[in-house]
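step: validate -> pass
step: tokenize input -> pass
step: predict -> running
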Amino acid sequence: MPWFKVDDGFYTSRKVLSIPRSCRLAAVGLWTMAGNWSGRELTDGRVPNYVLAELGATSRLRRALVEARLWLDHGSDGIEFNKWAEYQPTRSEVEADRAKAAERQRKWRERHKGETSNDTVSNGVTAPVTNGVSNDAPTRPDPTRTSNEVLEGARKRAHRIPDPFIVTGEMREWAAREVPGLDIDDSTSRFADYWRAESGAKARKLDWIATWRNWLRRDDDNASRRLTPSQRAQKTAAAGRRIAGTNITMLEIEG
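step: predict -> pass
step: emit ->
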């Protein structure tokens, strides 16, 4: 069963805070329930109007979520979550995971079929069947999955932040598009310092570039709330000039 994931910084994001306070709680509640429905039904972020009506959506709440760029409005076809595949598992990913789990289950049963028969004959009691895959509890949201296989894989792949942490030219191009007014070097320095100071499982990540992108998005959300529209426009223009005139391919953030 897939989970609808919500980042722990969602409530302070620029998009959420742009929703009028008078309807913010109701709008976020609607957003959450609609996301839960889409995740369960594997619709990749699309929610039809009849479901929205059942969830208690009003034209005001729908408009607020669209204006906040959390939803895309498709009129009579309902709504679509903005950038669903960037934050949530897609239908194809979920179905692929299910197929892999079913295959693991089949192979486990094949390997242990004889053992189960022997136990039944010698003991006179049918032993409870365990198939190596936990079906009782739903898959936990990232990063707290409890499947032994997932944990073992995470131990092999997850690692602490690289030292030094390198910002490549491709990463700078992404930042210029997605967070054009942000001081990338300052945010990256604080990002690296924060994660070097962390310890335990939290300090180990599978994808540090994705973690860096999320950090910059949050910094940009926080910074933008403090700027006037004209200041935001000036910073965007300045960032564009700086990126266009700089031929830097990578930056080392020293430890």
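step: describe -> Residues 91-157 form one domain.
step: cleanup -> pass
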